[in-house]
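Exam prep: given the inputs below (a chain plus adenosine monophosphate), describe the expected output before reading on.
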Amino acid sequence: MTANATRVLVLNSGSSSVKYQLLDMKDNSRLAVGLIERIGEETSRLSHTPLAAGGDGPLLAEGGRGGREREARIADHEEALKAVADELSADGLGLDSPELAAIGHRVVHGGLKFTEPTVIDDAVLKEIERLVPVAPLHNPANITGIRTAQALRPDLPQVAVFDTAFHTTMPEHAARYAIDVETADAHRIRRYGFHGTSHAYVSRKTAELLGKAPEDVNVIVLHLGNGASASAVAGGRCVDTSMGLTPLEGLVMGTRSGDIDPAVVFHLKRVAGMDADEVDELLNKKSGLVGLCGDNDMREIRRRIDEGDQRAALAFDIYIHRLKKYIGAYSAVLGRVDAVAFTAGVGENAAPVREAAVLGLEELGLAVDADLNAVRSDEARLISPEYARVAVAVVPTDEELEIAGQTYALVSN
Ligand code: AMP
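Solution:
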């Protein structure tokens, strides 16, 4: 790697999409962001935005190089990554640039083996493949993304940053389900947790906001996006998290049920005649907020509540009730809580969710200041009143910056 190679391309390959960002680690600035959706369908959609170096603003004014959008047929991930490479080249940011230090890949499941970001070689790829049975929706797309990127730049270090890695510090008593040990071990059934990159970033940023070292603070992180998870972070290390073997466990989410009695599954099979795939689809895609009220967007749910819609109000109450249970549970797990941090689409934007989640938790030291909570901002900020024992914070997550940072730290050493 040359000394001026400070750029990292972050790739997040989903089953039918590729999200990407090119960052410069000199100053943590974003040079380009983009998204390819509906890969493999009749028409795929590409959007690409070059950004001003040193800032986040699009290069709209002077250069006229605004965001570009187009539709085209993109058959597979290989074509998608070639399209990404072409878009970047058009802005003079091509993959052949000597300034590119590495490609960082978001990989959803790293099992127990990958506790750190890892430079990808054949053995690492094999291990990610071995984990496909526990992440059948995600790991195959991640693998395709890696292989394609390797083919485009075989000489460039490629790094895997795992969603599960931050949670590998969970103690056995938090990570194990109370089921037969031999069966669990034979099938690698345990609680892995997800959104780890976000939980790591947000817990560290929260410590920064409090002016303390991560080792000195205990934080409950509430990552509330379309997927949602909570984590208990003690002194910078995750000690519990709400997602489990898969991202289905835990909080009520946009389309996932979160915690339910597992006997619901047998009941659906025996009484409703549903097979495993149908139950999977029901609990992952047709449950949560969308199952309860038909909408999974919190903005729409709040609008309906304001109009007096009872179903939307009940969905909101169920969502909040679960959230409160996790705040209470993780307060108990941590013993001492210094901060509760809200992040992701709902957590960063929905003031009513933040207010309702801590309402009545004064005995736990939690309160929200209505004026501070109403402020809209992209900055990390405190929303608790001065007197509150526990800080309540809104901390915008930045998984791409975290992946780029971890990738660069690994390859620049
Ligand atoms: P994420 O998965 O982090 O991108 O979060 C997406 C979700 O955030 C959406 O489904 C909405 O429910 C929620 N969201 C985004 N913007 C807002 C907003 N301004 N107010 C309330 N919820 C929002």
